[in-house]
Each structure stands twice: as C-alpha cells, then as structure tokens.
Amino acid sequence: MAGEPVVLVVEDEPAQREVLAYNIRAEGFDVLTAAAGDEALETVRETPPDVIVLDWMLPHVSGIEVCRQLKMGTDTSKIPIIMLSARSEETDKVRGLETGADDYVTKPYSVAELLARLRTQLRRVRPSTVGERLDYEDISVDLTEHRVYRSDEELHLGPTEFRLLTAFMERPGRVWSREQLLDRVWGRDIYVDSRTVDVHVGRLRKALKAGEAGDPIRTVRGAGYALG
Ligand code: CA
Question: How many angstroms is it from 84 CA to the middle of ligand 1?
Fold first, then answer.
C-alpha cells in the first residue's frame, strides 16, 4: 500500500475511540475504526492495516478472540496487535501475549506511551515510515534528506527509483511481485503497465552501480524482485 501506515483502532467506547483516532491521525497515520470484534475482522479482510490497536473487552466477539483469529489467519498473522485492557492482573497479560498479541497496554494509559508502542510496532513492519535511515549491506538511504549512499559515495536516483529502493530496503529478502511494487511505488489508483516496473528496476540497478559494485536486486523468475 502506498502512502501513510494504516492503523486500525478497535474500541467500543465512542469517546475513547475518537481520542485514539484523533491522536493517531495527528501522528500522520491513516486511521480505520471499528466498534466491535466482528466489525474489526471484516475491516481487516477488506483493508488490511499495518498495525491494530485492539481493546480486550468488546461486544459480540471479544478482543482476545479477534486476536486469536487474526494470528491464525495466513494473511493476517503478521499484522502487529497491541492489546488494550482495563485488567491489570499479570495472568491476563500473559493470556493476552499467549494469544499472540505483540504488545499489551493496561488502561488507563497515556496516549504518548501508546503512540510510542505503536511506533515500535510500525518500525518492524514499515521501517521507512518511522525511521530516518535504512541500511542494507553497503547501501544507506537517508529518508529525511532523501539521499542514497553506496560505500559512502552519494548516488543520484530519480524519485521513482528512490521509492522503489525504499520499498526494497524496508523488507530485505521479501519477494515483491510487479503488481505489489506498482501498488506500493506508483499507488493503487494509477494505471501503469507492469513492464514499467522492469524499466525502473533496470534504472535503479544502474543508479546503484550494480555492474561495478554488485547487484543487490535479485530477479525471481515468475515472481518478481527482491533485495538480497
Ligand atoms: Ca471496551
């Protein structure tokens, strides 16, 4: 998905849901909300978020059950989940983590603390959206200054090649299909032929001096491309 990270807030108390959504939006993230467990599961199916903030006590389907189902799903198991709970007993916390929650925050919590936990989870799944620098072997990307270095020499990339490299560097080893790269680099609403991806990967390789310094991008036959 191109653009900002998407955070799903699942909380049945309207006031708490609004406060959370407001503060997370103020951080520059996109926010989806759900007021119940079944609604949360439906939202995740329609629009997979990057991170989920999930209240434990929810009507119909509990937060624990939502967490369990998502962590069992092949498409959803890697989405980080931060559980919120009014319960503070250690056993509940253990139960929450056993269900597969990635982090656990006890109510009442400070919004600042929750945002810090959120950034920690996002750093795992979308490093470039919260970090300032990405490194892979001898390649470094400074996201604040939009500069790229290889073995300390500054390289000059076009804007598309820069976005392409950033996507690769966020998840070294991940195999991206051409369609996934189109969504991520060009955006979902723009029609671009998938061969365009090949053209820009070629330009990126050239900009990275793949011929002299070694080609960090792997062509995966029948699948797409990967860094490393
Ligand atoms: Ca609740």
Answer: 9
State whether residue 133 is helix, strand or coil.
strand
For 89-146, how does the pLDDT look when each residue is reduced to its tens digit (9 = 90+)? 666 666 667 778 998 888 888 888 898 889 888 877 877 677 678 889 999 998 878 8
C-alpha 130 to ligand 1 mean position (Å): 28
pTM of the shown model? 0.59
- pLDDT tens digit string along 13-31? 999 999 999 999 988 889 9
Q: Is the pLDDT of residue 88 over 70?
A: no
Distance from residue 129's CA to the centre of ligand 1 (Å): 29
Cβ atoms of 96 and 105 closer than 8 Å = no
Helices (H), the chain: 14-26, 37-46, 63-72, 90-98, 111-125, 127-130, 159-170, 178-181, 195-207, 210-213
Helix (H) or strand (E) holding 148: strand 147-150
Determine contact, residues 176/220, Cβ cutoff 8 Å: no
Distance 49 CA to ligand 1 centre (A): 20
- Alpha-carbon separation of residue 42 from 11, 57, 94 (angstroms): 15, 18, 27
